[in-house]
Amino acid sequence: MQGFDYLCPGSLEEVLDFLASCEGSARPLAGGTNLVPQLRWREVKAGCIEMRGNRPDFLVSLRRLKELEGLSDGGDVWRIGSMTKLKVLEQAHLGEIIPLLRAVAGGMASPEIRNSATVGGNLCNGSPAADLMGPAHALNARVRLASVSGERVVGVDKFYLGPHRTALGKGEIMTALELPKTLCSAAWGFSAYATRPSMGMTLASASVIAPSAEFQEARPIRLALTLSSGRPAILEVALPADLETAQDIVEGELQSAIRKQVSKIAACHYSQENPQVPAWYVERRAIMACRHAIAQAWSQLAARRGA
Amino acid sequence: MRVDIDAVVNGRNHRLSVVPSHSLLQVLREDLGLTGVKNGCEEGDCGACVVLLNGEPVNSCLVLAVEVDGCEVTTIEGLSHDGELSHVQQAFAQVGAVQCGYCTPGMVLATQALLTRNPDPTADDVKAALVGHLCRCTGYVKIVEAVQLAAEFQRSEGVTMHE
Amino acid sequence: MSDTLIGKRLPMMDGPDKVTGQHVFGADFALPGMLWGRVLRSPLPHARLLSVDTSRADRLPGVYAVVTGDSMDFPKYSVAGQKLLDDQVLATDKVHYVGDEIAAVAATDADTAEEALGLISVEYEELPAVFDPVEAMNPGAPLVHEEFGTNIAVTMDFERGNLIKGFLEAYAVVEDEFTTPMVHQGYLEPQAGVAAWHGDRLTVWISMQTPELARITYANGLGITPDRIRVIQMPMGGAFGGKLEYKMHMIAAVLAKFAGKPVKIVNTRREDFMAGTPRVPMRIRMRVGAKKDGTLVAKETHIIAGNGAYTNYGPGIMLSAAHRHDNLYRLDNIHTRAQLVWTNMAGTGCFRGFGNPQSHFAFESALDMLAVELAMDPAELRLKNSTQTGDLTAHGWVIGSCGLSDCVRESTRIAGWAEKWPNRVTGDTGTREVAAADGRFARGIGIACCLHVSGNRTFLPYFDGASAFIRINEQGRVLVQVGETDLGQGSRTVFAQMAAEELGIPVEWVHIATVDTDISPHGLGTFGDRATTLGGNAVRKAAQAAREKLLAWSAQAMMSKEGAQPAAASAAGGRSLRMVEPTRRIRKEDLKIKDGVIYLPEDPDMRMTVQEAVCQYSYDHAGSTLNAEGDFVVPGVSMVHPETKYGNISCAYPFVAQVAEVEVDRLTGEVKVLSVSAAHDLGRTINPLLAEGQVQGALAQGLGFATTEQMVTQGGRVTSDTFRRYHMPRITDMPSIRTVFVESDDPVGPYGAKGLAEPALTPTAPAIANAVYHAVGVRIRDLPITADKVLMALETKEKLGEARRR
Fold first, then answer.
1. Which chains touch A (3 or more CB pairs under 8 A)?
2. Which of A200, C297, C401, C600 has its CA 20 to 30 A from that of C334?
3. Minimal CA separation from B83 to chain C, in Å
4. Is C171 exposed, middle or buried (0-12, 13-18, 19+ CB in 10 A)?
5. CATH: 1.10.940.10, 1.10.150.120, 2.30.29.30, 3.40.50.300. Which one for B87-156?
């Protein structure tokens, strides 16, 4: 038996019904940029023979679910539909509302990939180099999941379990990413280190959200550090007014968190994929990324205070 | 099991019976004989397979053919009209932005899409738009020149690009 | 303003085909009834093949043929002219690298072929493997090919002058070890080919650079005679040396034989990375000495080169690395030892520059080290020692033209060397006088030179030179058949320019055919930078011969026409002329051709178009076209002496100097190349537009070689097998490039032209390495120059500096 069967349902209900009731394995298809290469006959396994990969029996396309695209107002959260293309994150409307995502999206892969790839696909695929993962964690995002049994909302830090592992249950698909409005409009910072300046794989990234409206108020700054090895490390650090001290403090707090992450790097598959970048160097760049992201957020805070 | 799809390819209506696992790249090249669409890597890294899907450039190797039901696809073969080269094609040929020509179809289509969106791109705009396209022959210098020349051609004719 | 086509910025003639997608590449070619082939490759680097069971694959509906090493008698073979016969089309008793071809399938469609691959069962007995050439040289290392008794495939050892005496005269001596990795040509079109049999004759339509060599090699590999093979060269989507003989073509042929139908095979990108022919990696230890005034006195070199599992053009490549760079400067006392070593990796092969990028990285870095020792301007050091026109070098090279000194002067001029270099004085002890020495970003400038050949006689025993056939038809349209292939670099356009120039016709009238070994002259193909110089000379001579014939005929025709009606004179064909006693004698020497019109300068009324002339010729010769040929036998060149490697190997040597400017980020170690100023002595620029494109493209490859490209392997398996993991420069990575062409007007090259495309890549890596040293005082000796290496070196230097201060 070659290949798989394909369905393109017209409504969310149809999709969920099918996923719940189908005999055999089914996978939802969003933008396809991660899934399509995986589905191909050719999958290079450790032994290098190009052989058939693990194919589902059914592929369920989500492309007709227009209700899963775009931005909507969820009261105290902004809701981004899971089928929203990455390029939409760069565009004026969404970009102004959630500038951190705009900054990240602009650097992801190529315009062609961003024309196909989706927010949901990026998060659910769970690649350790998924660029939206860190920012979603910094923004304290939640993931909305739906199945025939109903809906549930899960914090992104509970949703993402590790490289290619999420809390997505059987018969569930992600319908939206929910972001607290107060954090979306906060001062932000982002810095990433990738295997190349563009079209590479992100090895370390720091996403910062600094929610203080009042500069002197030492509200906690949220920093999400991804090291493409495990789950992002979230640090909430109370910061004093002085940036220099702030950076030292954060760095001190970060060192041990980073060390813990870095010690996992050698073991995980990222290292096998990128053995030419030594772990000590990734660690250095991770720390630099944190410093840079914090500095960025800090200068925005200062600007707001000045304004 | 094959799936029937209806798509408009280079302005012509097609009804195709496709295998779900076949990419748009494969179907365009093999079922429709449009070998101007190139296979460079089949993983979305090189841009040689780029086509316009409803006017937007995408890697056709990452799109399953079944997913273009009801869509419009433009390949390099659909750009010149009545044997006349489009501005972009002319510019590329004129300034020496073409050597072996393998990356050219993807580059030209992506450029066409760029100029539709942004008729006066800076060199940085051009590079950001074409970052997904690899070229091993030219070193890219003349490609940037070609895009800017094409923009000039467009402007001097007062043309707004349309499909 | 000259009307000449030589030096004209002419866009590529097949440009319109390429921008409309009409250009059919090897990977696009198809024949009716064609089957799809796929290759089963070894997952292990070294193993005995215990059994290969194809029964389940055979039975799969849609499968027409499954072949293995037992399907027929596969002789041991190697590439054309190569005597180490260590390869077979399909593995028989052993597999020697991850990716080695074991079996192949031909089926009605790609999906079926792939499914069939999965149904082939292979039993292996894994053997110990060795991946590093140095380790492979150790006595206890596993033998890749037991029948040779050693992993050292080739050893070269030669001396010139008196090395000991040379070093005794040295004021400064530097010694170090440099390494260059395996890198991949990265052509966008993967390896592809279609094979079909007609009776016992094989035809292959393949993307490949050397059709005639393919004919020879594939005959050897298949155990048939070359006359039974027809190679039709398809347009290539890039090659850069990576598309010489390739086993996959023979596998397609075998499948086609067994299936009784044409078979097409196209590599996936991953297969190409895994089983291509990457650049020969080298470890080069070099010791160079100079007098106090900078005069080079002695050089000792040891090269260990990785052959991979099968001998490809490794021996020729290693030889080029062993001796070419020595001819860049006046250097008499040399000793070089080089060893080519088998390992359980893919057989390494040609990549633009051959062995020169590797050797020049070492040599030009070492020269920079010498310049530091001597506190001398590195550009001055090069000028002091530069080879000059008319030199006879220590290796016996006769330098017919040399613009090296001009290249050094020009490249440094346009780079602003005089202002930028003296701002830093760097020394190994770390003493620096630098403005803003503690700044995060440090700028530096570095220079490197290189030379190359224009065709060469070092490893192919057959011949060198080129020949061309030319045919002019009654519409005045010219067809030229050459033995050199267009790889996409535009040789067809350059040849057309030369032919049109000689014939005095518009360049659009000329068509250069792609190579078909049944019809074309049996040239060696395009590699070794031979196309313009050798192929060009042949085209030029053929066109001159055609012109002679045309003018001789036209002179006759014009004299006969003297008495004819004026109306008849303008007719394009077929009207018989009244034979009248001519009133004057017209000799062919008196006639000129311009814009397709043959005329007598002193009497513009005496004219006829080329079409008219050829038309009449054709009718008078029973419909024949006006044919001519030209062959170019390279003068003054001989095969190198087998042991000493002495001999003038090429008729023309191009020279290059490149200056790179970099900015090093001390915090991250990242090296940003700001600009490259390149001066190329190519003898004469036939087409500046295409020449610029060659330099820019080569620089991009040089940039990759220097800073980002490296084939990463783990247990012999290539893990950097996608463009995501194998980092080739992208449009956003390019520095600003300034090019100058120095025209030294070679006496042998056509219109004075020498090669260009290959050497443009060679000096880039050492220029960048030297610029990094200039910027921050650290020297990276191991390509690519990555940020982590620079950062590590900077920190080590700082720690050493601190330790010294205490």
1. B, C
2. C401
3. 9
4. middle
5. 1.10.150.120
Per-residue tokens: B39:
């296979």
Burial class of C619 by CB neighbour count within 10 A (0 to 12, 13 to 18, 19+): middle
Distance (Å) from the C-alpha of residue C734 to the closest C-alpha of chain B?
7
| pTM recorded for the entire structure | 0.95
- Give the tokens for residue C470: 């030319």
A·C CB contacts under 8 A: 77
CB distance from A170 to chain C under 8 Å? no
Neighbors of chain B by Cβ distance (3+ pairs < 8 Å): A, C
- Which of A2, A33, A50 is best to mutate for the C interface (most C CBs within 10 A)? A50
**Band of the pLDDT at A213, cuts 50, 70, 90?**
low
Work out how many CB contacts closer than 8 A connect A with B: 82
The answer to whether residue B50 neighbours chain A at the CB level (below 8 Å) is yes
Domains, chain C, with CATH or none: 25-127+187-239+243-274 (3.90.1170.50), 282-457+641-805 (3.30.365.10), 466-632 (3.30.365.10)
Quote the pLDDT of residue A272: 54
Residues C108 and C66: beta-carbon distance below 8 Å: no
For C74, the token pair is: 């596969």
Could you say which residues from 17 to 46 on chain A have a Cβ atom under 8 Å away from some Cβ of chain C? 41-42, 44, 46
Chain C interface disruption, residue of A2, A33, A40, A49, most C CBs within 10 A: A49
Kindly give the residue spans of alpha helices, DSSP state H, lying in C599-687.
610-620
pLDDT in tens, C114-172: 889 989 999 999 999 999 999 999 999 999 999 999 999 999 999 999 999 999 999 99
Residue type, C730: R
Nearest to B144 by CA among C125, C700, A142: C700
Q: How many CB atoms sit inside 10 A of residue C670's CB?
A: 18
Residue found by looking up tokens 């030294």 in the block: C744
Strand, coil or helix: A86: helix
Inter-CA distances, C226 with C215, C216, C667, Å:
6, 6, 60
**Would you call A240 exposed, middle or buried from its count of C-beta atoms within 10 A (0-12, 13-18, 19+)?**
exposed
Distance CA C263, CA C440 (A): 58
Point out which residues pair with C36 in neighbouring strands: C107, C264
Q: Indicate which of A55, A270, A273, A276 best probes the interface with C, i.e. most C CBs within 10 Å of its own CB.
A: A276
What Å distances lie between residue C363 and C106, C280, C359, C381, C604, CA to CA?
Answer: 49, 17, 6, 13, 60
ipTM here: 0.96
Distances (CA, A) of C82 to B147, C85, C150, C272: 46, 7, 18, 23
Vertex C707 angle, CA C703 and C713, to 5° = 120
**From C696, which residue of chain B is nearest by alpha-carbon distance?**
B139
Q: Whose structure tokens read 């280190």?
A: A193
Evaluate whether C778 touches C797 at the Cβ level (below 8 Å): yes
No. of helices (H) and no. of strands (E), chain B: 5, 5
Domain range B3-77, its CATH number among 1.20.58.480, 3.10.20.30, 3.20.20.100, 3.40.50.300: 3.10.20.30
Are C114 and A41 within 8 A, CB to CB? Answer: yes
pLDDT per residue over A224-241, tens digit each? 888 766 788 787 766 665
Residue C731 touches partner B, C-beta closer than 8 Å: yes
- Element at C607 (helix H, strand E): strand C603-609
Q: Where are the alpha helices (DSSP H) in C269-335?
A: 269-275, 314-323
The runs of H, that is alpha helices, within C654-756 are: 688-707
The answer to whether the Cβ–Cβ distance between B136 and C731 falls below 8 Å is: no
List the 486-505 stretch of C: residues with Cβ below 8 A of B: 487-490
